[in-house]
Design goal:
- The protein has helices spanning 10-20, 52-57, 126-139, 157-166, 206-214, 253-257, 262-270, 272-278, 295-301, 307-325, 329-337, 339-350; strands spanning 25-33, 36-41, 44-50, 70-74, 81-86, 92-96, 104-109, 113-119, 142-148, 172-174, 195-199, 221-222, 232-233, 240-242, 248-250.
- The chain has three domains: 3-88, Nucleic acid-binding proteins (OB fold (Dihydrolipoamide Acetyltransferase, E2P)), CATH 2.40.50.140; 94-100 and 106-251, P-loop containing nucleotide triphosphate hydrolases (Rossmann fold, 3-Layer(aba) Sandwich); 271-348, Orthogonal Bundle (Ribonucleotide Reductase Protein R1, domain 1).
- It has twelve helices and 15 strands.
- The protein starts with 9 loop residues before the first helix and ends with a helix.
- Bound molecules: guanosine-5'-diphosphate and zinc ion.
- Zinc ion (ZN) binds next to helix 9.
Amino acid sequence: MDLHVLGWNAHWRDLFEPYVSLSLLPGRVVVEHRGAYRVETEHGERVAVLAGRLRHEAGRRSDLPAVGDFVAVRLNDSGPTVIETVLPRRTALTRRAAGERAEDQVIAANIDTIFVMAGLDHDFNIRRIERYLAAVWESGASPVVLLNKADLCKDVGKQIGDLRAVAIGVDVHVVSALTAAGVDALAGYWREGVTISFVGSSGVGKSTLLNCLLGRNAQTTAAVRAGDSRGRHTTTHRELFVLPGGGLVIDTPGMREFALSDADEGLDTVFADIDRLAAHCRFGDCAHRSEPGCAVRDAVERGEIGADRLASFEKLLNELRYEASRGDPAAAAERKRRGRIGAKAIRRMKRDA
Ligand code: GDP
Ligand code: ZN
């Protein structure tokens, strides 16, 4: 297996450098299920387990490997392959894990572009799309909106108009996964080594589109090797697919169930008044500090909102952003670069939810 097909490049080679002398091999996690892994390596796909050190010393759940992670593994003649290290992620789609401790769980790592799918049928919900977009920006991946089921909708003008207001700077495509209309135009978003994925409510057409892109029934035929025209029939549930022209799709149960965390939703209710006002700030990414035309500061000056309330709102937002970025240094740096967008996205996410 040529790892370049799976996204291996100079960036990962540099990060892997320290492990070469330890006789470890690079690999990419292609399946994760309850702590059991499958890792694709240049010697083929292997069942893998976590090194004891990794399992015990992982301070946070997000330290553990997720589908899409590049890892350093030790191949054993007897016994399973062992995952020794997770290379720092470029992007990470996370959700708040259930339970007492506020922990983030990485749903999938190192996705370059995430398609936010919405149906043009009765399911069209602009707020939901907005929230998905915010989460994708936070992950470090680039979002693209796909309006699916175009065959069921005569006039998409209203939906496109609504989208323009929330999906600023985001490409929007109208497609029909069923008839393949508009699907060819998507091919420009991937090539060899580029990883994509889909989010959107159940029934929106994710499986149909994936099958359309793969030209076959993805979940019954698994050909993880590019150019392998024979395919490999197996009953294993695949979570990572190589597209015919190159490019990878991550399709895991976690991606499918992906929804924003409860904590994110709570903030909106607590600070609904500030969120409502923020919608009237002159700048969409207003930080409510010294920006002209800030509706929130105006309300503070009029005494409608206590300055301390604004302060605690800001504090919570900062905490949220900090939590989102503490996954690993590389992702944090990437999020910092995107900071303006991230803050804006978070604010949008809280607004009008
Ligand atoms: P998923 O839950 O997001 O994977 O959605 P599916 O791919 O399973 O699709 C749900 C239903 O919508 C299925 O009955 C599909 O045949 C149907 N569907 C998917 N895409 C389209 C489309 O473009 N047009 C129409 N009319 N139906 C579609
Ligand atoms: Zn403001």
